[in-house]
Amino acid sequence: MTAIPGDQDVPALILICDHCGRAHNGQSEAATKWQSLWEEAVSAGWHGLDRPVGPHFCFRCAD
Ligand SMILES: [Zn+2]
User: Fold this and answer.
1) How many CB atoms lie within 10 A of CB 38?
2) What is the pLDDT of residues 19-44, one digit of tens each?
3) Domain boundaries defined on the chain
4) DSSP-derived secondary structure letter, 49
5) pTM, 2 dp
6) Helix, strand, or coil here: 44?
7) Structural contact between residues 12 and 32, judged by C-beta atoms closer than 8 angstroms
């Protein structure tokens, strides 16, 4: 699923798993940028294309 903006007041992105819908919220201010959010997600076990349009799969669905 496409990475979507979070609350309008917060310039953060939320990554959502295409398979189960699990959301990955950025843990730091760096996650306000896609590349930083994705790198953070990858380190947490996420897999997928290195682009906001995805697809992306969470650490549970990546196996
Ligand atoms: Zn998943």
Assistant:
1) 23
2) 999 998 766 655 568 888 899 899 99
3) 3-57
4) -
5) 0.70
6) coil
7) yes
